[in-house]
Amino acid sequence: MHTQFTRPAAVAGAFYPGRAAQLQQMIQTYLDAATPPALTGVRAVIAPHAGYVYSGPIAAFSYRLLADQPPPARIILLGPAHRVWFHGVALADYDAFQTPLGDMPVDRAALQQLSATSGLFQLLPAAHATEHCLEVQLPFLQTIYPPVPIVPLLFGEVSAAPVGEVLDGFVGPGDLLVISSDLSHYHPYDDAQRRDRSFVDAVLRDDSDAVARGEACGQAPILALMTIARRRGWQPHLLDYRNSGDTAGDRQQVVGYAAIAYTEA
């Protein structure tokens, strides 16, 4: 018999408010201020994953755009592992992820399917237990959509293109991809802007080699997305770019954030 197992929130009260009312108010404020271009057929977004005071206003551009789309059948979350080292892609073998706004159900059958399809994927809940990069996306998703099953994937030491090829065979027409990534880390403001704009331009022109040389922590998940998008003819659109020096930090050592959407042709 299967025992229900929910992953408790690891960074509530740190990266974002731990109380539901305060969290909802903060997210709504960011969504109301976001002004993404009018796009339809959005299949994937890239959003940052720092503390909300730093990156929330930028992430809101991706989620404000998604709020105008019909809810997906399933949300596939891709992010980089910050706290645990492993080979391949770690699957979150939980029934749900908990946040102050409630539980997001996990599509466990999808996890079993991926682990059976390719040795690149392994059930490794320990990698997810304290990881923030996927968790911080969830309250935004809970705000704009009814509960939708999630497929949480954390990238460890792995070549991105083969993962993208497996996922291309897995992603269905009703699926939404959410890629969690910040950009450059801890450079002075002007230097960071230069590096980040170069990286974003490489994403927008589908230059995998230049993206692979960049500094985004979610470089591998972004490269996997680019593999899928190339095969399917999805087009990238920059929604917003800022850094922590623009939002809530000093300008001596900043972290860069971009919101990017991919639309189907």
What does this entry look like structurally?
It is a single chain. The chain is of the alpha/beta class. The chain has a single domain (6-263), classed as 3-Layer(aba) Sandwich (Protocatechuate 4,5-dioxygenase, Chain B). It has ten helices and twelve strands. It has helices at residues 20-33, 52-67, 108-117, 125-128, 138-144, 160-168, 189-204, 208-212, 219-232, 244-247; strands at residues 6-7, 42-47, 74-80, 89-91, 96-99, 102-105, 121-123, 150-155, 175-180, 185-187, 235-243, 254-263. Strands 2, 3, 4, 7, 8, 9, 10, 11 and 12 form a nine-stranded mixed β-sheet that branches. A three-stranded mixed β-sheet has the order 1-5-6. A hairpin with a 2-residue loop joins β5 and β6 (102-105). α1 (20-33) packs across α2 and α6 (160-168) packs across α9. The radius of gyration is 17 Å and the shape is globular. The mean pLDDT is 97.
Which fold name fills CATH's third level, the topology? Protocatechuate 4,5-dioxygenase, Chain B
> According to CATH, what is the class?
Alpha Beta
**Rounded average pLDDT:** 97
- The CATH superfamily name is LigB-like
Please give the alpha-carbon distance between the first and last residues.
45 Å
- Total strands: the figure is 12
Give a quick account of the main beta sheet: strands, pairing sense, barrel closure: 9 strands, mixed
Outline: globular
Q: Per CATH, which architecture?
A: 3-Layer(aba) Sandwich
The value of Rg in angstroms is 17 Å
The helicity comes to: 25-40%
Tally of individual domains: 1
* Low-confidence region ranges: none
Tally of alpha and pi helices: 10
Task: Encode the helix/strand succession as letters.
Answer: EHEHEEEEHEHHEHEEHHHEHE
Beta-strand portion reads 15-25%
Class by SSE composition: alpha/beta
